Amino acid sequence: MKIVTAEQMRELDRRTIEEAETPGEVLMERAGQGVADAVARLAETAGFHHPLVHLIAGRGNNGGDAFAAARFLKEDGFAVQVWIAGAANEIQGDALRHFSRMKDAKITARELPTREDWEESLAYPAAGDLLVDGVLGTGGSGPARGPAAGAIEYINQQSRQALVVAIDLPSGLNADTGAAEGAAVRADLTVTMGLPKRGLLEPAALEYVGALEVVDIGIPAEYITQAALAEDREFIHPNDLRPLLPRRPRATHKGSQGHVLLIGGARGYAGAIAMAARAALRSGVGLVTVLTPAGVAPIVAGSVLEAMVQGGPETDTGSLSAAFWADWRNRIDKFGAVLIGPGLTRNPEGTAIMRHLIRECPPPLVMDADALSLLEGQPHFIAKCRRTALITPHPGELARLMAQDIETIQQDRHAAARAAAESTGAVVVLKGAGTLVAETGKPVQMNLTGNPGMATGGTGDVLAGLAAGLLAQGLTPYDAARLAVYLHGRAGDTAALHKSQAGLTALDVLDELPYAFREISIR
Are 60 and 160 within one domain? Predict the structure, then answer.
C-alpha cells in the first residue's frame, strides 16, 4: 500500500470533498466507524467483557473522529466515556457537527481545558479498559502544549492498565518524520485514515505506533493513482495480500499443493528445525520433508507427526554432514522450495552444504539463521543461486553477512535491506521491529504486525518455515516474504492479546497461524 505525507493526504481529502463532492462530515463519519470497528475487534480479541471505552478528544478533526466513534461504539453496546482536551465551545466545523450528534445520542463529555485539569485527573483516573487517543492529528506541529500535553501524559500513564488506540497517528508524533517532538502517545494500535502517513513507517515512530490499521474513507482510487506518492517504500496491508491466497479447486490433493524440504537441526538443536517444520505445515503446503542428522531424526519425527523426517549422515558434533549431498543431489529437484539453516550450527561441514545448495539446488532457497552465519562476509556468493533466494536475517546475522556492525544496520534499516538485496540478488527479510522486505527494483515493504513478546527463541524458525511453505506453493520469493511476515506478526499479536506478551512462546505463534490466515482469506 502506498504511503503519503501529511500534505498529500490533505490534498487527497480536498479533492474528495470538492471534486468528488463527498462532504467532510461524511469522511469523518466513515473514519469514526472505522475506529469503532477496530476498537470492537481489539476488545473481542483481548477477551474483554462489557469493556468501558474511554475516548479522549481534541478540538479539531481528530476529535471529530473520536466523537463519531463514540456514537458508533454506544450503538454497538459499549459503555463509552468522552473527555475533551479543551473547551467544547472551541470545537468547530465538521467536528462540531459530530459533537452535536454525539450529544444527541445521550453521550456527555467532560471538559478539561487546562494542563492543570489533566494533572488533577491523574490522581483520580477513569477506569477505562480501552483508551482512544483523538487528541492531535496530522495538522499539529511542534511539541504538544496545554491541555493536549496533559492529555498525552494522562493516556500514557493509564496505558499501564488499558490498551491504547490512536486515531490517525499517536498524538505528539510528526506525521512526516515520525519523530516525537515532545511527549507522544504510545499506542498499541494506530488506526489511520485513507493511507498510511509516511512518519508512521519511520524508525523513530516504532515505539509509538504499535500495530497499524488503515481505514478506507472513500478516496477515489484515481486520485491516489494520480498523486505523486513515494515509490521507495510501501506498507504491507492485508488487502494487497488477499489475491495471493486464491480459492483452492475442489479436486486439490496434497501433491498439488507443493512439497517443501527443510534442512537443519543438530544435537541439542532439534527444536529449531522441528518448529520450522510445524510452521511449514501451517502454511498450506501439501507435503513437508525434513532432512536432519540421524541422531536427532527420532526427536524431530516425534515433534512433527505430519512431516516426513529423514536422517542423514552426521559430524562428530552431531550436525549434518555434507556427505548427504551424494544421495540427495538428484532428488532435490522434486521439491518446490528448500529451507536451510534452523539448528544447522556453524560446523565447517555447513559451509560445504551451503556451497552445494547455492550452486546446484534447482528449487528456490530460503536461508535462515546458521545458513547465513556460515556465509559471513560473503553476500555476493548468494547471488550464485540458480533461482532467486529468500534470506531472513535478524540484524546481527545481516551484520555478519555484510561484514558490518549491528549499529550500522540499525541506524538505517531501509538502506541496509536495500544494500543486502543488491549484494545478494535475493529477497531480504530484515527482521525486527518494523520487519522489512526488500528486492532490487521494488519498493521496500514494511510490516507493522508483531510485538515485543515475539522476541523469544523459536519465533524466527516459525517465520522461516512459514515462508518456505508459501514459496513451495508457487508464490514468488517477494510475495512469500510479504505474506509470511504479515501472518507471522498477526499471529503473534493475537497470541499476545490472548496470553500476554511476557508469556508468549513460539508455539503460541504457531497455534494462532490458522486464525491469521482466516482473517485475510474467507476459506
Answer: yes
For range 137-146, the mean pLDDT: 87
Q: What angle do CA 494, 497, 503 make, to 5 degrees?
A: 105
Cell of 50: 462489557
Q: Let me know if residue 58 belongs to a domain.
A: yes
Direct distance between the N- and C-terminal alpha carbons of the chain, in angstroms, rounded to an integer:
24
Regarding whether 256 and 218 lie in a shared domain, the answer is no
* Number of other CB atoms surrounding residue 515 within 10 Å: 14
Phi, psi angles (nearest 5°) of residue 385: -55, 145
Residue 343, sorted as left (phi over 0), alpha (psi -120 to 50) or beta, turns out to be left
What pLDDT score was predicted for residue 230? 72
Residues 200 and 257 both lie in one domain: no
Q: Is 236 exposed, middle or buried (0-12, 13-18, 19+ CB in 10 A)?
A: buried
Separation CA 456–CA 459 (nearest Å):
6
My answer on whether 328 and 422 are in the same domain is yes
Q: Domain range spanning residue 94?
A: 6-230
Set of cell numbers at residue 370: 546458521
- The residue behind cell 552445494 is 356
Q: Pick the closest to residue 307 from 338, 266, 340, 274 (CA basis).
A: 274
Question: With left for phi above 0 and alpha for psi between -120 and 50, is residue 120 left, alpha or beta?
Answer: alpha
CATH of the domain at 225: 3.40.50.10260
Domain count of the chain? 2
In a domain, 235, yes or no: no
| pLDDT at residue 184 greater than cutoff 80 | yes
Please compute, for residue 302, the number of CA atoms within 13 A of its CA located in the half-sphere on the CB side: 7
Task: Please count the CA atoms within 13 angstroms of the CA of 110 that sit on its side-chain side.
Answer: 16
Task: Check pLDDT > 90 for residue 228.
Answer: no
| Cell, residue 272 | 529449531
- Return the C-alpha cell found at 519: 482473517
- What would the grid cell of residue 225 be? 493513482
Distance, in Å, from the CA atom of 114 to the CA atom of 320, rounded to the nearest integer, reads: 68
* Per-residue pLDDT tens digits for 480-519: 999 999 999 999 999 999 999 999 999 999 999 999 999 9
Look up the pTM and report it.
Answer: 0.95
List of long-range contacts for 183-186, beta carbons under 8 Å, 24+ apart: 183/143, 183/144, 183/149, 183/152, 183/153, 183/156, 184/144, 184/152, 184/208, 185/133, 185/135, 185/152, 185/155, 185/156, 186/156, 186/159, 186/210
Tens of pLDDT along 232-284?
899 999 999 999 999 999 999 999 999 999 999 999 999 999 999 999 999 99
